[in-house]
Write the structure tokens for this entry.
Amino acid sequence: MLNIILFGPPGAGKGTQSEKLIHQYGLHHLSTGDLLRSEIAANTPLGLEAKKFMDEGQLVPDSVVIGMIENKLDANPNAAGFIFDGFPRTVAQAIALDELLIKHGHPIAAMVAMEVPHPELVARLINRGLTSGRSDDTEEVINKRIQEYENKTRPVAHHYEGQHKYSPINGIGEIEEVFNRIIEAINNAKSNVTA
Ligand code: ADP
């Protein structure tokens, strides 16, 4: 089983690259953002609660997203592995994920961190907002999301750096070019796992 965290700020391109990775490795894609948006679309109590935070550019409470991930892990015991996209986003989520995966016997192999400078992120997200229909792709909310990332999410990188699993890559360039950098980082991690 291959468990990978695709890490990076909002607008780094995690969703785009996840799509390509699931084809390459046959992994299961777990995006907490997508899961939350499905809950909102289905008008569930969880979705209604989460929407309040998302529309403000704030993180949804840890207990909500950890519960969603736990359900998905339990529902897919025979998966070839998972790509975690947009999760973990706080150190508390990272600790919870590590515990869940140890229980399943397959810890995180690598955290691939996509690095993109802030002005580029803002430009990409404003541009996406023109067509995405996402209520959080407006300039004011985008800036709040990036602030949340700096305050609460960036420390998650240090958590995995401490486990020697942190693998930063340059997120600027053609989609294919960035994809190849990610593949290289994952292949290095795989050889460490099997070594
Ligand atoms: P992006 O990375 O572009 O901001 P996402 O779809 O990953 O987009 O997340 C959208 C919003 O969903 C976040 O701003 C946050 O409110 C909420 N969210 C997603 N994942 C998490 C998480 N792991 N913990 C807390 N909130 C989350």
Q: What stands out?
A: The pocket of adenosine-5'-diphosphate is lined by residues 10-11, 32-33, 36, 53-54, 57-60, 65, 86-87, 89, 93, 136, 145 (CB under 6 Å). The chain has a mean pLDDT of 95. The radius of gyration is 16 Å. The chain has eight helices and five strands.
